[in-house]
Design a protein that fits this description.
Blueprint (H helix, E strand, L loop, with lengths): L2 E6 L6 H11 L3 E7 L1 H7 L7 H9 L6 E5 L5 H7 L3 E5 L8 H12 L4 E5 L5 H15 L1 H14 L3 E5 L3 H9 L1 E3 L5 E3 L2 E4 L1 H7 L10 H14 L4 E4 L6 H14 L3 E5 L1 E2 L14 E2 L2 H14 L6 E6 L8 H13 L4 E4 L7 H13 L5 E3 L9 H6 L4 E4 L2 H20 L12 H7 L4
Parallel strand pairs: 1-2, 1-4, 2-3, 4-5, 6-9, 6-17, 9-10, 10-11, 11-14, 14-15, 15-16, 16-17
Antiparallel strand pairs: 7-8, 12-13
The structure holds sulfopyruvate and magnesium ion.
Length: about 425
Amino acid sequence: MKTAYTCFSTDVIHEGHLNIIKEAGKYGRVVVGCLSDRASIRYNRFPTVPENERMALYKSVEGVDEVILQNDMLYDDVIAAIKPDYVVHGDNWVQGVESAIRSHVEGLISQYGGQIIDVPYTFNETVSKIDLQLKEKLSMPEYRRKRLRQLITMTPIVKAMEAHSGLTGLIVEKTVIEGQNGKLDQFDAMWISSLCDSTAKGKPDIELVDMTSRFRTIEDITEVTTKPIIFDGDTGGLTEHFVYTVRTLERLGVSAVIIEDKKGLKKNSLFGTEVKQTQATIEEFSEKIRAGKKAQLTDDFMIIARIESLILERGMEDALARARAFVEAGADGIMIHSRKKDPAEILEFCDKFRAEDKTTPIVVVPSSFNTITEAELAEHGVNIVIYANQLTRAAFPAMQKTAEDILRYHRAKEVDDRLMSIKQIITLIDEI
Ligand code: SPV
Ligand code: MG
């Protein structure tokens, strides 16, 4: 008997999936692959139902003969294992980024005479509603908040990109590319940078933009996205205020706050020792961490301690002593920062810290040491990489040049070629 294989990553079965199973049944024994959680987070959206439960769900559907786990987004593992005669899929993968996967599968199965069956995608009101409900579920605080901790265990390195508005949030949410390995890739999380949030408001990054306004930015982003949020909490402010910040962030569904061990007037770290900045003592900052952890109500939320010793040229030993103390005080992760171009001091810190602490997540922000790759960072024990400001830095010169050219030519025609069409802008924004 022939085998018809189809792969699902869905958390619910709707009539579109039932139709695919029915169609597959016409060609042979129906084997359903369950795309692993690890592959799903890169391929489409974060699974709210874990892979073992999704496998049981698919198995319960009438017409399904067998369910197997598919670990590879490109189908290499399942095709090698079961050599299906047919691979059945909704025809939505004929176009767009997923078409790369379709071509890859076609290349694999055509070697032994296998065939792809594209089933017309089921577009109707019920299916779109289910799709929207799934997306909405992911955006709810209780799902979003815990997702960072989940991601840390699911992927070698969590990739967070800066967002400071609904629009930049949408870019982080929706940008999917076909990587060099032929697999799809996307960001895991968003970083709400104090630098970019302030810059977007035309203000300096000195804790001048107040928390109420920063919360408003979070809300603008949570309204239109589902990915988890890491919030740049600057120094955390007064401990008496920080405890309230923790509660609000938890309520908003933020996954983590990163606070830095500075006090007094905070300036952006990339100024280093060129400006006067004061580091809090280990005791002072540990006290803030302890108070925050005590105020926290969920187990999901993370308070990550950011160490500024390398920025302020206080040395490696000071950085490590602080890391030890802050973990002891309850920090759920350590962010180590550097403004050197060479990543050597960051890697030295990571290696030394990992030698004594195998589990506490390490976060880095490679704005200056930008030659290092995610894979290299992961090899040194880094769990989260934050691209802290690149969207702002990309947009600003583009906007400035466009403004200059419109002034120069007294019309907008000359700039038109480099502008996104209104139609493309509109496709980015979901309508209800
Ligand atoms: C930010 O993005 O606001 C940060 C990271 O705090 S850095 O600007 O590198 O200090
Ligand atoms: Mg900042």
